[in-house]
């Protein structure tokens, strides 16, 4: 069975969203991780099994059985806590449901109430990267997935990108 080089996902990417995605000032690492999601190349548990790091198809954070990328990216309650905290910080007047967030991440379309989509994409890309790092550190190296630490890190790194002021610490 051969794998096509590009995604065969049914949801098409928004051309306008794609343009903003490539221009948004997120870090190259964040964009690369997000790009893997857009083209359907996220390694799940089967990848860990292949490399001998796992024998389970259960989420190691919440022990739910899952096969989909929705749980991996946003649906896992542990990760959803991080998303809710970071998005709540930057968009206190908006509520992003799991489905809404997943749609944004996989189709690059967002609610019309978002007046600065580039800003939104930086927040999501940076948070995604922090969650990704936390996921693999806990999954492969058994380092605890520390929600509050990841929330603070995602907020700090996003502010660093979005504000011209230097941050001390
Ligand atoms: Zn989970």
TrEMBL record:
InterPro entries tied to this protein: RVT-Znf (IPR026960)
Reverse transcriptase zinc-binding domain ranges (all copies): 19-83
Name used for this protein in its record: Reverse transcriptase zinc-binding domain-containing protein
Natural source organism: Absidia repens
Lineage summary: Eukaryota, Fungi, Fungi incertae sedis, Mucoromycota, Mucoromycotina
